[in-house]
Amino acid sequence: MRRLLVLGCAFAATLAPACAQEPGIDPADTGFMIASTALVLMMTIPGLALFYAGMVRRKNLLATMAQSVAATVIVSLLWFALGYSLAFSGDGAWIGGFSRAFLTGMGVDTVSPLAKTIPEMLFAAYQMTFAVITVALVGGAVADRLKFGAFAIFSLFWLFIVYVPSAHWVWGGGFLQSLGLIDFAGGTVVHINAGVAGLVAALMLGKRQGFGRENLAPFDLSLAVVGTGLLWVGWFGFNGGSALSAGSRAVFAIVATHLSACTGAAVWSAIEWTHRGKPSVLGMISGAVAGLGTITPASGFVLPWQAVLIGAAAGALCYFASTTVKARLGYDDSLDVFGVHGVGGVLGTLLAGVFATAAVSESAAGPGVSGLWEGDVRQFAVQVVGVVVTVAWCAFGTWVALKATSAIVALRVSGDEEREGLDVSQHGEAMGV
Amino acid sequence: MKLITAVIRPFKVDDVRDALQRVGVHGMTVTEVKGYGRQKGHTEVYRGAEYVVNFVPKAKIEIVVASEHVDEACQAIREAAKTDKIGDGKIFVTLIEAALRIRTGETDDDAL
């Protein structure tokens, strides 16, 4: 399509000088990004809602789903109000501007300098779905004990203290992007942020009642399997869509995503089978999600065989992080947001700096990005800086957001409410008895 | 009149019902229960978190029979529920003082 356009322009150049202008909104790119936006929204509701709800006890199942629904509602409205503008408008090194507040300042033919072939309104909507799922992911670490009201207020603080600055730094023209950090679809912005925030929240709220003594087994893992399927398919929009155009780079990203999910699941299962005697269904889906989260920053920069290696590393490292290491450290991250997303995000962001292959990311706009294996040591160093900055800011920002929230409402439900279950105590509803 | 309470393997309920019908017992109450005796439970592992589930699912059947039929009924249950492995269950017999059929008002053996 684009090649035809270029040929057309060359042919018509003498007749119509207007063709020399920027190409403008491309229908194929726009269609692809509308579909990608829908896919990523589907990852949160119902994808993540089912994935998480399937791992909790029956008395907390609805309350866990409520977090995903609430994140969708609250974060979308905040994104409309100020989130998008502060993350993706202006050219400040630290934070964006107010020119897109309440999604104003955009006409039907406005494009963002960050995505020049789709309407800026679509770019804003697409990025909104990323903010939504990141906030929803955090809730899993404190499932079974975080007050619903506290989650709602925390979402507001955390979005503006952690997510929005981070998205600006990495994608919106901020200092990490200027430094050359590569993060295709959110190893830092989404996964490290969600994982570290989850860990900080789990430490600040303390363990669930009966942790390490009582049986806290999942009520219905089949829901988690369905949720994983929706996340997996949705991830094609998450990583593929991060190419921001319907081209080969999106295809490479999607193939890398799928292969990493497969090796993540295979390696996690193989280790668990050897280590614990049985390949659990929870292990298979955990490995797949670990592979998906870990390939996220590298997809769009790597070749298929490199994605296979990244997925394998994810399956192994996230397995030990979520089982042995967590048990030894003794923190209670209910649904392993840190062990899977935090650890996977760090691993993937670093491995992007190892495996980045210039041929995958080169375009008419400029040369591609090389990692360590193509001899670029600096790129790897930049990735390390990106990880350190993201972890540090997120840990601090999450602490501030939780402190601010706890000044307004208690973070944790009472002991009786926790025993009764959050479905009844927070929402006045219960699953069939 | 005696109450026979048998805790048996859940998949043996239909066999036991057939066997009791053959000896003239035409009614029973079945409850799904959990418990433990000599049979061990199992271990579940969720991302490294290990839970030992001690309580094994069983079926509890309750029947009331005239005193002279107790031995026959107990034998029928035992033969039908047996697998010769640990966990086959137990049978308890207790004395019943009175019985009353709600619809007709018949009492004791007539009510069974």
* Quaternary assembly: heterodimer
Count of β-strands of chain B: 6
CATH superfamily membership of chain A, which one? Ammonium transporter AmtB like domains
Helix content of chain A: 55-70%
Which protein chains make the most extensive interface, counting residues with beta carbons within 8 Å of the other chain's beta carbons?
Answer: A-B, 18 and 8 residues
Helix content of chain B: 10-25%
Largest sheet of chain B: 4 strands, antiparallel
Taken from the alpha-carbon principal axes, the silhouette of chain A is globular
Poorly predicted tracts of residues of chain A: 1-21
- Could you name the CATH topology of chain B? Alpha-Beta Plaits
Strand order in the sheet with the most strands of chain B: 2-5-1-6
* Alpha-carbon Rg of chain B, integer: 17 Å
Number of domains of chain B: 1
The span between the termini of chain B is 9 Å
Please provide the count of β strands of chain A: 0
3D architecture notes:
The complex is a heterodimer of chains A (433) and B (112). With 433 residues, chain A is mostly helical. In chain A, helix 2 packs parallel to helix 4. The longest helix of chain A is centred in the C-terminal third of the chain and has 30 residues. The radius of gyration of chain A is 22 Å and the shape is globular. The N and C termini of chain A lie far apart (57 Å). The N terminus of chain A is likely disordered. With 112 residues, chain B is α+β, with helices and mostly antiparallel strands. A four-stranded antiparallel β-sheet of chain B has the order 2-5-1-6, with helices on one face. Chain B has a two-stranded antiparallel sheet with strand order 3-4. In chain B, strand 3 and strand 4 form a beta hairpin. In chain B, helix 1 runs antiparallel to helix 2. Chain B starts with a strand and ends in a 17-residue tail after the last strand. The mean pLDDT of chain B is 94. Classes of the chains: A mainly alpha (433), B alpha+beta (112).
